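quick q for whoever's on today - can somebody do inverse folding on this one?? i tried earlier but teh output was garbage lol. C-alpha cells:
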C-alpha cells in the first residue's frame, strides 16, 4: 500500500459518503492521477504504479465498505483516461498503465467469484448513464 493509494482511498470514501455522482468520482480520479504524473519526471513504470494504486484503492473500498463494483470500473477508466489524455508521453505510458490496471482487475475478478458479500452493479449511489 502506498501513500498515493491511501490518499486515493480516502478521497473516494469521502465521495461515496457524500453520495457524489459517478461523474464527480471520474473527475476526482483523473485530477489526482494527473497531479501525481506532474509531480516529477516519470517513466512508464511509475505511471503504471500510479494507475495500479488508484485501482487498488477502489477495490479496497469496494471490499471494505461493500461499495459497488461499478466504483472499481469508474476509477479504472478515469485513471486510464488521465494517462491517455496527458500529452505526448501518454503513448509510452499507456501500455504499462493498462497492464497494471488489468492485473488488479484480474485479481479483483478472481476474488469476486468467491466473495458472497459483493453487491450488484445496479444498486447504490451510482447508476448507469451518469
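ok took a stab at it. sequence:
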Amino acid at each position: 500500500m502506498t501513500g498515493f493509494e491511501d490518499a486515493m482511498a480516502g478521497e473516494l470514501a469521502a465521495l461515496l459518503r457524500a453520495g457524489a455522482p459517478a461523474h464527480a468520482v471520474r473527475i476526482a480520479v483523473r485530477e489526482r492521477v494527473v497531479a501525481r504524473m506532474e509531480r516529477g519526471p516519470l517513466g512508464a513504470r511509475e505511471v503504471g504504479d500510479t494507475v495500479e494504486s488508484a485501482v487498488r484503492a477502489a477495490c479496497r473500498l469496494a471490499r471494505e465498505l461493500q461499495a459497488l463494483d461499478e466504483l472499481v470500473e469508474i476509477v479504472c477508466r478515469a485513471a486510464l483516461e488521465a494517462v491517455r489524455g496527458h500529452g505526448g508521453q501518454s503513448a509510452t505510458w499507456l501500455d504499462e498503465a493498462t497492464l497494471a490496471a488489468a492485473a488488479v482487475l484480474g485479481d479483483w475478478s478472481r476474488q469476486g467469484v468467491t466473495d458472497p458479500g459483493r453487491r450488484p452493479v445496479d444498486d447504490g449511489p451510482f447508476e448507469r448513464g451518469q
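fwiw The CA atoms of residues 34 and 86 lie 7 Å apart. also The mean pLDDT is 79. so keep that in mind when u check it
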